[in-house]
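Sample A.
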Amino acid sequence: MQHNGVLETDQLDHTDHPPLVLEDIWRGIENDQFLPHFQPKVTLRGMELKGVEALMRWQHPRRGTLTAGAFLPLVADNFLFDDLAFVMLERSVAQCRRWLDQGLEAPVSVNLSPDLLRDPHLTERILEKVHEHGIPVHLLTIEVPEAAVAQESSEALETLIQLRVSGFGLAVDDYGTGRCGRAQLERIPASELKIDRQMLAGAARKPTLKAQLQESVDLARELNFVAVAEGVETREEWDLVNELGCDMAQGYFIARPMPGEALSDWLMAWNADPFL
């Protein structure tokens, strides 16, 4: 499962429709059809909810709910991802406020692109939305892909530092896919290292992959990052990342992405029997 808030394996598009075109995207934006679904992140030791990741969905009037993989290539080709990412951020912050009003504190993570990180006013824009909805800054984590860290952009690094100084969490996403070295990670004031699904798949049965996964978990610990295993899909994988010392896990074994209003019911069921 490749994130970036973006490409996932559960494609919900229907092949009996004509290809999406740019006008469809604009119409969807104008009609508020893009919205976040939320996938829980839980601790491996206590199996407690520690946050959710916002993943982009398109509530299409004819095609139903589309995952980002169904439309993101068109969005990226037309330079619309940053606009949609900020829509997701604002709606995620608003949902976080609704959860707080219900007595549920659920920190939310939102994906941003490397291009958006070069905006010198990004931190100010995000702070404005957070203050508008009245949520504490520590309840929002910004996720950036490992590839963005590997680029070593001075503008992006300055923005990441500003975000951390302002109190936001900062996660390096898709770790294991972007060839980011330790020295580059040490420059980033991150709070989480999200280990990509491709490092986990098959690691329970392949010693070489397991050793690489262990190295990633150990690196997170050495850098004082929270180690999050992405794409945990089976009990075997859950047991493996627990054995290797991961702090948190996220994936279909725990929960599929869900609308914000479904989180409370999911949490009640999870607390009653996590592996039901």
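Sample B, a different protein:
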Amino acid sequence: MADRPGWEAEILLAEALKKPQAWLLAHNDYRPTKKELAIFDRLVARRAKGEPLAYVLGEQEFYGLPFKVNKNVLIPRPETELITQRITNHKQQIANSVIVDVGTGSGAIIISLAKNLKNKDIKLFAIDISKEALTVAQQNAKLNKVEKQITFLRGNLLEPLFTKKWKLEIGNCLEAGNWKLEILANLPYLKTGLPGLTKAQKHALSFEPRQALLAGTDGLKYYRQLAEQVKKLRAAYPRLNLTLYLEADPDQMAPLKKLFPTFKAKVIKDFCGRNRFLILN
């Protein structure tokens, strides 16, 4: 609670009382019960040990929507909202599209798209290798009332797209060239050992699932796998109209482009002006 202790204390007290923060301001003479104080003390103790506030609360806002988060999923980052915003701002361009969120985690991206894209000519899929992460994503879909709009699949990156069921349901649309495939991938891209990060940053990351953060010595382990799967996908569907939206570290943009040499690449900056997203088509 080092950065904004007063503000965070209010949030934690509101959580302990199960009341909105505004209620605290209107009832500043309220005396919490022993049970409420005990809950508050436990929450404060967790935060004091460096556990991210979102995990302590069990919730994080993304693109104006609430999302449940726990140790099985990464906390959605504000910069990732940019790619969601870019897609929702170009609704007309993604009509007749199959949108696949690879490594969906909490489901923040695909669920935000489901809430904002009302076009019936869009099919939404979310993939994750973690059963626990998919459970959280499905809970979030229900929380935001879009569970009927998204198909959740378990598998390693694009593997579920090569099943017979997928080919029967979606393959014909893609093979005919009438539908576009939009693949969103915010995969693990941190380097083993977390070079360049402070001790405090490493401690904060220690609460998040390692398999969703680390990707080998150069941070591109999973993007290399994705690149190979994309080659296989294009071979299966020669007329495929494909666009990839990838998020990575600014230092990884150049080597990431080299993994997809046949694509035209466009780099998008994040809120801090750093190269953060790569759009390939």
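Observation for Sample B: The chain has a mean pLDDT of 90.
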